[in-house]
Amino acid sequence: MTVDGPAHRSRRRLESVLFGHTHLRRYEFEMLQPAVDAALRRAAAGRDDDGIVRVDLVTLARRIMITISASIVGLDLADTDEVRHRRLDDCLAGLVRGVTVEWTHEDRGAVLEDAIGWKEVFDREFVEPALARRQAAPSGATGEAEHYPDLLAVLVADESHGLDRAGILTECVQYLTASSGTTATAVVHTVHHLLAWLKAHSEDAGRLGDSDFLRAAAMESLRLHPGPHLLLRRATADVELRGRTIPTGRLVAVDVREANRDTEVYGERADEFDPRRSTGPGVAPEGFTFGGGRHVCIGRPLALGTYGRRGEAEVDGTIVRILRSVFAAGVRPSPAAEPTRVNGVEDRFGSYPVHLTAL
Q: At what angle do helices 82-99 and 57-73 cross, to 10 degrees?
């Protein structure tokens, strides 16, 4: 995210194999959908005495995505090992708090100390065993990176990335938090908006199984909620930008949230959720939430699918597939428990209690 020039091109080229079309289909059909089905079965099995299935949508979405995240990073995580799944989920929760520490209203020192502790757990219990298994493979045995590509296998097979052991751990943390935490956040925001939208637009209730409609809703939600919405950069040279000089060394904040709500681009009601919104040519429906240019998010096809690519069978994307499943399960907001927000500037739900009425 903050590497430039030849180092960025080299690492992106090396890691792009993780998101080839064949592997996107493998993630979605062989890992994600079974994980969704298993999570919903567990939820149904835990229904309360009154017959209602109550779950926290934040926890449910994060738990579903951990299966794919573990596969992308290369962690050894059996589907049936619930104890290990919960341990990795605890790591993820702590790591997300650390990655977003600049946006919290809590004691930053305490948050960082806790996150570093979870980083050590993540390394010791998950990354180190997976890395050791790959490094112990016979010399020249690089087939794993080719046939079962994951981040650790790729980094072990090709050391041109120049990352030391600490750098490899950081890369694993980034991939885990981006693929699990970001998707879970997007799913919850989209469900929140669609439940409100359907109250005023009941005619769209029949479209909750339609990939295009759900993707449009997800993009609209991503546009409105880009996560940590300020990108901080420091000018390395004097820059002239629209008649204004930014001197060397000046810290610049790029406000993605405001850019995503630009009325000249998205219309007068740009600050409202509208899954029917149409955008002009060259305008990303999700705004700059995934970045742009050479730094556009490498995992965007995983999240939003491969719609519009010629010559390829479409992949729905993780967000669309989870949305379709939770709406098919009859997701409804809990009448007795209110959602909570994280304690900070970051635009994210800490919990989102729901009932699954169709399970």
A: 90
The secondary structure element, H or E, covering residue 224 is helix 211-224
Select from 315, 321, 322, 221 the least CA-distant residue to 277. 221
Collect all residues with Cβ–Cβ distance below 8 Å to 170 and sequence separation of at least 6: none
Cα–Cα nearest to 79, from 47, 35, 132, 119: 35
**Measured distance CA(308)–CA(286) in Å, rounded:** 16
Number of H helices, E strands in the chain: 16, 9
> Would you tell me how many other CB atoms lie within 10 Å of the CB of residue 225?
23
pLDDT band at 145 (very low <50, low <70, confident <90, very high): very low
Residue 246 tokens, joined: 């930014």
CA distance 216 to 278: 9
Task: Please identify which residue in the block is written with the tokens 């919990």.
Answer: 351
339 CB burial (10 A radius; 0-12, 13-18, 19+)? middle
The 10 Å Cβ neighbour count of residue 47 is 15
- Beta strands 230-234 and 251-255 are antiparallel
Q: Is the pLDDT of residue 299 over 60?
A: yes
pLDDT tens profile 193-225: 999 999 999 999 999 999 999 999 999 999 999
Contact 32, 64 (CB under 8 A): yes
Phi, psi values for residue 234, rounded to 5°:
-115, 130
49-101 residue pLDDT tens: 999 999 999 999 998 999 889 999 999 888 778 899 999 999 999 998 998 88
pLDDT at 300 over 50: yes
Question: Residue 144: pLDDT above 70?
Answer: no
Express each pLDDT in 130-142 by its tens digit: 999 888 876 555 4
Angle, helices 57-73/182-200, rounded to nearest 10 degrees: 140
Nearest to 185 by CA among 214, 228, 152: 228
